[in-house]
Amino acid sequence: MSIHFQPLAEITSRAKNALIQELGVVDTLRFLNQFRAGSGDYTAEREQLFKDESVKSVVASIKARRNREV
Description:
By secondary structure, the protein is mostly helical. The chain has one domain (about 10-70). It contains 4 helices and no strands. α1 packs across α2 (about 25-35). The protein is elongated.
């Protein structure tokens, strides 16, 4: 049994074409943009941002915000 491996560029091209056919160009671009690499060090930023928080306090904050928005 032989396995045919397609080059990654060919798979990428076929996938983009399938997305464009199904979603259209604009929504395909919107979908693909969510996978772009960001910048910075999220782990360090998160540690600084939540250094005085517990999981319980973060959850309570989220719930309080949701209640205010309703």
